Amino acid sequence: MFTTAVLPDWVHWVAQDADGRVWGFEVEPQQYQYGWYENEVGRYLLLTIGAANPDWTSSLRRRQDYLQKPSLGEQP
Questions:
Q1: Does some domain include residue 41?
Q2: Tens of pLDDT along 5-15?
Q3: Range of the domain at 61
Q4: Closest by CA position to 7, among listed 56, 67, 60
Q5: What pairs with residue 37 in β-bridges?
Q6: Is position 44 within any domain?
Q7: What pTM, to 2 d.p., does this model score?
Q8: Fewest 10 Å CB contacts: which of 18, 33, 42, 47?
Q9: Number of domains in the chain
Q10: 2 is a domain residue
Q11: CA–CA–CA angle 33, 7, 42 (5° rounding)
Q12: What is the rounded distance in angstroms from the CA atom of residue 12 to the CA atom of residue 55?
């Protein structure tokens, strides 16, 4: 797991793909079949790789929500 101290200021959204990759996005990402993408708008950054997440579709969080509940990338 990564610490929130390493999140660049421009990261406003955090989400995890089905395969466990956790991404930071500048703008709200779009959902696709197995994960999230930036739709060619804004920046994105791979933050960490955790365990596969069968509940990945509900992993999208605004930065302030993630800072309060950092559960992405952690195993249940």
A1: yes
A2: 578 989 999 99
A3: 9-68
A4: 67
A5: 30
A6: yes
A7: 0.79
A8: 33
A9: 1
A10: no
A11: 55
A12: 21
Residue type, 25: F
Q: Are 42 and 24 in contact (CB under 8 A)?
A: no
pLDDT at residue 64, rounded to an integer: 76
CA gap 35, 29 in Å, rounded: 10
Helix (H), strand (E), coil (C) string for the chain? CCCHHHCCCCCCEEEECCCCEEEEECCCCEEECCEEECCCCCCEEEEEECCCCCCHHHCCEEHHHHHHCCCCCCCC
Q: What token pair was written down for 48?
A: 């960490």
List 36's β-bridge partners, or say none: 31
Cα distances (Å, whole numbers) of residue 60 to 52, 55, 57: 15, 11, 7
Is 74 inside a domain boundary?
no
**Amino acid present at 44:** Y
Has residue 53 got a pLDDT over 60? yes
Of the candidates 65, 76, 70, the residue with the CA atom closest to the CA atom of residue 22: 70
